[in-house]
## 1
Amino acid sequence: MEPIDVRSMMNAAATATAAASTTGLPRQERRKRLSPAALAVVNQKVRDAYSRVVVVGAVRIADFVLLSAVGIAIYLAYVMPIDGFVWSYVWAVLGVAAAAVVSFQAAEIYDVQVFRGPLRQMTRVASSWAFVFLLFIGASFFAKLGGTVSRVWLSAFFFVGLAALFVERMALRALVRRWAREGRLDRRTIIVGADDKSVSKISTEMKELAGRAKEGKLQPHEYQGGTASLSNMGMFGIKQFEAVINPPQGMIMAIGAGEKRPYVVDDALAIATVMSATGSFDHRAIDGADGAQLMQAFKQIVENPLGLVA
């Protein structure tokens, strides 16, 4: 972790614009040959990421198909051999399945974060499924269909359907947790060629990508790949934290909040606005010494913004 003096950064920022127009220092690059381990990391195939909207939509369809299949299968196995085929049962099953999906949506079950929590997910599924059946029973009573609907079929539909939903949700939880570990549910925008772009250009691209991300219009090449990430939780008042590397990237930097702390300024103790930056590095691709030099250079540049235009 490197503490960064934001006050000195802000003091120097006033002259950064003028220096940018008058300074024409050449860029200096230091390229190193990658080790075999680093090459193996770089050459790892980047798996396609899944859109959360598409995942949630697929779960809705799966719920409807699953509940419809359970209800119709029970009807075909128990009711039809006795009373013959009646379309009203099929329409009732489809209506219950559709009402269940709407009830799940109202209970906020269709959320990727909810998919990861088994207790909260199962509780909401059970309560919503029971609510739908209460509505169906009430509708049957007022429509005077109570004598024509098989109670055995209705009870079996409820309990078998609930069990099927539980099994589906457990499988979905395992699948979503695996996708999350693999980074396939993320939509982190990628700035390509950031080392050759100015700060203003990067800022402009970030705003454009953020706007398209909110609208759900990002293209795959705009959120897949990358070599390093920034995670800024300082905007939420988090003082310091350690971020987890997004495979197959080589590093991630966690940016904390700027706050007033005791700090040595000109060999005297003073109060300065300081923030914390924590770097996490994959040592298969980045040597620890190189990572330390990067953090040191980052600290120096942020405290002296003129370095950004050099």
## 2
Amino acid sequence: MERLGGAQLAVTIIFSRQIGDLIMLATFECMNFFGRREDGHVNLPYKELTIERLVPIENPQARSESRPSVIATNGVTSILVSKEQIPDPADAIRSNWVEISALPNVSRLLSTLRDCGPGPINFGSGKPPEGMTHLENYCVMAVSDAITRVETGKELTDWSYASGERLLQAQANPRQLCTIVAPLVNFYVESIKSVSITDRLRIRSTTEDEIEQFGIKGSIIGYALTKVGGPSRFRPVRWVVETSFTDTPNDGTAAQHALRELDGVVTALRILGDQFFDYPVAAVTYQPYTHPSYGQANPRAPAFHHWSQLDGPFLLDASIIPSATRFVRTLLPIMMGVTNKEIKISVSKLRQASTRENDTDMVIDGIVALEAVLLRRHEKDRSFRLASRTALLIGDKPEERKRIYEFVSHLNVIRGDVLHGREEFAQRTTAGEVLSLSRRVVRQVVDDSTIRPLEALIIDLDRRIDDLSMNGIDPLGRVFASRRTVRRNIV
């Protein structure tokens, strides 16, 4: 995959900030072009937009039902819905494009972008208006959004720099014309920088707009909110996973592939820890190259109405970011490919497990995840093979290997009990224990997959089992030796 070198990255940052500065200058230039109305607002058409805001409650004792605009409250803060008039400058700018494009800063913005690369070929959003290029049309949308932000009192500088970076990417790398952003709920990275997985996939901190868009504010985090239809829990969103790609008109193939990549990153990261995090599908945002924001995020449902029993938060510590990135880069092609089916099944089971409604289902998912990577099809003596291979794969010390062997040996009993309606033992074995063990196994199997096939790993584990059975000092070796003696006497 392509990666930016240090010098190229520095040039990219400089150009994106230069473009961001030009967006701001062009914005105020356009506002001066249209002038002001008597009420002080810019002389442009306006449209009505539904706005959701978090506001303090003046009278906490008042019932939310008495305020039709309140859609949720925790007794201290409420989410209010209101209708507001916001400027809609895009069509007015297009109608006067001949004059506006000749304005000094608008002209500089266009020429600077043209110097950055050949620009895009295809657009998911269709053709630009007659007489305009795709690039000109996007500049119209960027300036239009910026004007709306100014008029509605929203932050402009950071937004302009982010837009400048996106415009630069679109010109220099046509693959990055569309963006999908998913909020990672209950997820934190101990870093001030974004974490790049590939040249198109990254994990980054949220912008102010996204925090507003995903319905999360510090004053409301952690409270149980009363909402029509039942209780709803809000969780913090501070990081997002983002993927960029080229979309073509009337074809969703690229977007579907990008969504699978995004989900693959989340799936891989969740293997790295026992705390639960995820992204709500309803909050995923798709932004085509000419996506208009109108200076206001699209209304979204609050993140997660249903929460896993395995609460977090999930923390990606700074010390493990490099190894975590390598792991995700290793697992992602496996999840996107057609080989290594055993690993894909195992990872998928762990992906599903944390969202199950009861511990028993989670335990069974964890057992299946183990079996998928450490057992062959139609293998005899499955309980022993699963327990012994697991112990030797992840056990570092003799006593730990013996504990793992005994624990996994009971999992086959659990499976049988569940199948026959006896869940007492399964309920005494916590889902957290089983899933944590399964994740350790899968992490090791994925790392090992870079040097040899899964079958080679199983053969090596079986050889080590035979060798250990000859070791009368090792605690697990004695178990293996006694087992061989019993089997030999039976024969």
## 3
Amino acid sequence: MWKAPFALTPSRPSAIELPGLRPQGRSPDRMASLNRRRATRGPGRLRSPYFTAPLVQIPLPRVPPGREGNNILDSVTDGSYTESNYVAWAMRHFFPSPRYSSENIVIVLETYLDESGDAQAPVIVVAGVAATQPHWETFNQQWRPLLDKWGIEFFHMADFESRQGPYAEWSDSQRHERLNTLLALITSHAIIAVWAAVPKEVYERVIPDALKVRITPYHVAAISCFTRLNGILRNELGDRDVRAAYVYEDISKGSGAVLDAYSGIKMVHGLAEELHMLTLSYQPKKEFRPLQAADILAYEVWKDVTNILAGNPRRRRYPITQLEKSLDIRASLFRDAELHLLVPLLKQVFL
């Protein structure tokens, strides 16, 4: 049995039992009684200081045809969902009880991940921002009108930085004002953030050859983000049953690696539960606007880490300092020693 080099969440019964699983000490009759009582209770208000919005009841979309019973990948979705119904589908698929009380509630964090760096870059970054659905709903209501007003379909930080496409005509004052507006929206609605940066030279030195044929720096960064977010959930919200529903851009370079990491975790008995992982979905950045927030974070982290690795003494960029001031960010810049600690988990997941 693999033993983690870092503490994972202690095993405990979920607030809502997974289909087909029953905690020890509860008879089927007792469970049936509990489920009947849950079904008669209305939705409660989340009592953690991080989550103050009421749980929103949403019409639930059907599970996509052909996805039922897909074993390991049955929780990887590629249907045409929107921000408002994706987590609702996840709740229906994994937690079919129709109503939840304040004592029996699953808090779902919609966690949007993006990447930065390419084959020529010295470092690969995966970063994500997380919040509950009501937070992202408000975020969407405020983000989209701004982009419409500015005449852009979606915001892409690399194009903004290089003044390409629709950003070419923006004046310096417009650039500063508009980026500040977007940063303020992100920090107002995102609750926590995670990122992992894997320098390629560290990857080459530390990762065993048997693993290199199976994984890339994207795999390492994805696994690190999953474990980092779990650390936040364990330390800050240990008294609540919180699950992470991950969303990744559908055409990203690292999308295959993220799927490999997610699927590998699902193969290790009990690990997905320990990491509070609910689902993984691939969606377009234009329609899933929190992915644009993750894009800004990933790009800024990549620029920051690239400067650090190069020994560049220049002042840190304004966007990353603003994000760090307002978000609870858990970061992993891998050096040799830190990556060595992660190797046992990587072997368990990928070999």
## 4
Amino acid sequence: MAITTLPPAPSRADPANFSDEADALLGALDLFVTETNAVAAAMDLNDTNDASSSSVAIGLGAKTFTVTAAKSFQPGMSLVMADDAAPSTNLMVGNITSYGGTTLIMNITSLLGSGTKSAWTISQSTPLYLITTYMQTLLDDETAAAARSTLGIAGINLMHGNIRVNQRDLSGAVVLSSGEYGHDGFRGGSAGCSYTVNANDITITAGTLEQEIEGVNIQAGEHVLSWSGTAQGRIDGGSYGASGAVTDTLSIGVNTIVEFDTGTLSLTQLEKSSAATAFQFIPFADELAKSQRYLALYHPVFPGTNTHMSFGRATGTTTAQIYMSLPSVMASYAALSFSNLSDFRLVFGTGTLVTPTSLNVIPNARTLIAGITIGLGSAVLTAGDLIEFKFNSGAGHLLFSAEI
């Protein structure tokens, strides 16, 4: 309702018209008061709230309610229609399409709950769009797989699903025994695995290749396994099947094993869904960072001899310790492996170089610091001496492993 504009106010600068304008202004005040009170009444909560006993099924789209006449409902206004018996779990939200007499027609855009209700509380609302159970069902449904992919709503990928993180620098034909790891994250199955590395995938020629996913990365609910290639896959020892047809209900915090038999394989993905979506590519740097929770490789920055690795202290005449920063907190206490002892040198005093006879990890490498005890074959050190540990070969490397 609009308020009629008041006449111009009288002014002493216009004495000739002052009396007429004053009379007009005073005469208009009665109507002004009436219209102002009508607007105030229209803005009152009681004129934008109501109740209805119409029997209406909870759903989207057009819904008709019988309401009180002469309310201040306007087309486009947002309303919440809540079930009196369960207003927090059964409700509909939408905009008024039309209102006349006692008929209110709504366009429902969001909802919670289900069923047909016949006792409604109607109240004005700001525009509201709910992530409802209904919408979540759509997101989980097979017909929504493309939308989930576009929106980036996916579950977890297998670590290095496109099999390109390769800290062990494997190439050509790879032969793994049972439980032995090859490309980062992947290991031989119960009968081992043989595979060849191609430009864009691998070909499993014998046995099976599996990956164990740490329980902290598992969401509870139905999951689907998908991949590209001719290999068949399975989850936790179930039946083998084709890509997108292998599903299982997983439990949060419980490790899960996915496994692939002979054939070509790439773009492996496990996600919390009933239907597979497009493979989610992850930048290589992010994939490497994920891998370093389980495997951390150290090798010379520059090829050749006498490349610095770390400083430390002698702990006795034949032992010393060094400490190294790890790129990630590892999944468990790390085991240490290395190329050859001849690939390393310990430097002390005025530059004397000695080849170590042993390297052992200090068992605290679940932190961001890893310690190594270095053993020597002869008593040449003094406890407390500053020492330097170096690579003596460009092929030398240290490997900290916390693979599951």
